[in-house]
Amino acid sequence: MASPAVYVDDVLLVDRCLGGEEAAARELFRRHRAGVHACLFRMLGSNRDMDDLLQEVFLQVFQSLRGWRAEASLATWIDRIAVRVVYRYLAGRKAAPPPLGLVDDDAIAVGPGGARRAMAREGVRRLYAALERMSPAARVAFVLFEIEGRSMAEVAEATGASVTATKLRVWRGRRALEAAAAEDPVLREYLKTEDDEA
Hints:
By secondary structure, the chain is an all-alpha fold.
């Protein structure tokens, strides 16, 4: 929950945006751009459409700004819009996951830890390849809960689903990732390393 000062600041900023003040629109974008980009990145990984998706989120934010009722913080409301944009993006494309193969030797940095960093990059790539095979609903719920560390209630709110449906989606995502890791030793090792560091 936003502090009273942040809440008042959000209301004043939105009022200025609705009044047509360009500086206020730039300020809203500046304040929330990094958070939206981080959310998109965690759900989609490195993606050539990232700039377009970021632009789509803020286009919808500014088109829907009159609909913000200040029942949730402005950041939470923008977050919900980002989740809807990701849902549409994932549901609207039928791209195959990238082929699996180790990172090129050229990508391995010279010096201590270079091979380890390359394997970590490969683990992340394989993680996103596994996420790619999930349904959009399971993928978004899984990422918000497991990777972003949000509570089940927050994920349910962001996705517009019940807590029960959200738990089921996260469980399906977890099962799909476990199945992928069972068949992929690089992914299995990456997930094990991440668990050990957590």
